[in-house]
Amino acid sequence: MYSIKNRLTLVSMIVLTIFMILTAIALERAVVKRAVEAEEDRLELLIYGLLAAVDRNRLGYSITISPERLFESSLMTEGSGLSAMLYNERREIIWRSRSMIGIFPDIEAMEPGDWRFDIVDLKSSRYFRRAFAMQWPDVRDRLQHYDVVVWKNADRHFNDIDRFRQTLWSWLIITTTLLLVVMYLVMMWSLRPLKQVGREVKAIEDRKQKEFESSYPREIKPLTENLNILLNREQHQRQRYRNAMDDLAHSLKTPLAVLKGYSAAEALDQAGIKTLNEQVDRMNQIVSYQLQKATNVAGGEIIRPIDLVPLTSKLLSALEKVYRGRTIKVDIDLPDQVWLRMDEGDYMEVIGNLLDNAFKYGKNRVRVTGQVQHQTELILEIEDDGQGLESGEIEKILKRGARLDEASEGQGIGLAVVADIVKSYNIEMTFTESELGGLAVKLVFQVV
After folding, report:
1. Which one of 135, 160, 185 terminates a domain?
2. Is the pTM of this model over 0.85?
């Protein structure tokens, strides 16, 4: 039972079978009860018909049933299975229908106005019995007690009920079997995305593909999207380590060449010592930067959504303090709340670098705007009124192997870091000319 499919199949079979059995039992009881009640109602109507045909006998001291006023032909047909009789207060039969064959047991004593209905087994047959006790005045207006009893053969009724039960349970078995098959097929169809996840994981392990490529239902889509982010970041992290080592080796060539020019056997003068110290400091700076750059992306844990509005406000507040010596007007137009599935440190690094460049190279104005489109995307734009960058400069900054000097401060290093991070999150980033006259950076995020 370690299989989800087996568990769901077993539970579905048990629940469906129990449900169908209980439904069939309830339906059977309801039908049987209603059928018996219908027979009871028919016999009651028949008794009312007999009462309508009541007449005094010749002497007037008793009553009888007038055949001419009977409208039930079965009572006039011998052996029809429907019989009626009239008892006086001494429990004597004073009238019986022509259809009556055989002897029926006497009914127990009843009070006037009482009704009685029961099912009686007689030899090999079962009968419905309906009785009514009443009082009727004689010629001297004295009330006499009488009982009207109707008997109906119930064999056909119970045969019909048996056939109904057989039909009901036959269709129950057929329906339950079909439903189980349909549920099994639906279950297999519903679990196909999970099987596809397993196949894609195997393909990723075998290095046949780099990420999840199939389209998944919305219940599984957050899982595969997060896994794709983790895979992309892990692959990007490995590439960052390789690039960092390449950059480190390349950057250390010049300081090492300078150090190599000094022979260990030579006595160093003050200028030599100063040069040596400068090159050691330079190497230390290079190593620190490359290590920081190599570990810039956060670890591979599941990313919790973040609200970018307070984080952006925090960055703007900090930068306004850093550049408080300059008069820079900041225009902010952001929604009240926007959730992104992104590491908080990565978001602070990306937006912090872009805002720092805007404050650093802008003259008097910085504008930050955000707009949610189709409830799935956020377009965040950062603009300044500085001199901006040429398209060739932007390409050079973002392209590995043709970078600006990473040892100096400025847009070059910041944009390179930003480009690495947004690439790991599949965030669309474009640079255009701002309406303010400087550089405009547009980022397209997928919102939660």
Report:
1. 160
2. no
What residues contact 168, with CB distance under 8 A and at least 6 apart? 24, 27, 28
pLDDT tens digits, 76-119: 888 899 999 999 988 889 999 999 988 888 888 899 999 999 99
**Domain match, 103 and 240 both:** no
* Domain CATH for 388: 3.30.565.10
- Rounded CA separation 24/172 (Å): 7
Q: 143-153 and 115-122 as β-strands: parallel, antiparallel, unpaired? A: unpaired
Split into its structural domains, the chain has a count of 3
From the number of C-beta atoms within 10 Å of its C-beta (0-12, 13-18, 19+), residue 5 rates as middle
In a domain, 181, yes or no: no
Mark whether 59 and 103 lie in a shared domain: yes
Work out the burial of residue 184: count CB atoms within 10 Å of its CB; fewer than 13 is exposed, 13-18 middle, 19 or more buried: middle
Indicate whether 311 and 441 sit together in one domain: yes
Identify whether residues 268 and 363 lie together within a single domain. no
| Interatomic CA distance for residues 102 and 122, integer angstroms | 11
Q: Which residues span the domain enclosing 49? A: 4-160
CA dist 379 and 443 (Å) reads 6
Query: Cα(21)–Cα(12) distance, rounded to whole angstroms?
Result: 14
Q: Are residues 284 and 314 in the same domain?
A: no
Helices (H) and strands (E) in the chain, counts: 8, 14
φ/ψ bin of 141: left (φ > 0), alpha (ψ from -120 to 50), beta (otherwise):
left
Report residue 15 as tokens.
Answer: 């629940």
> Which regions in the chain score pLDDT beneath 70?
1, 60, 243-244, 246-272, 274-302, 396-414
Q: Are 45 and 72 in contact (CB under 8 A)?
A: no
Q: What is the largest CA-CA distance in the chain?
A: 162
Q: Which residues pair with 143 in a beta bridge?
A: 137
Instruction: Note the pLDDT of residue 447.
Output: 87
Predicted local confidence at residue 292, as pLDDT: 62
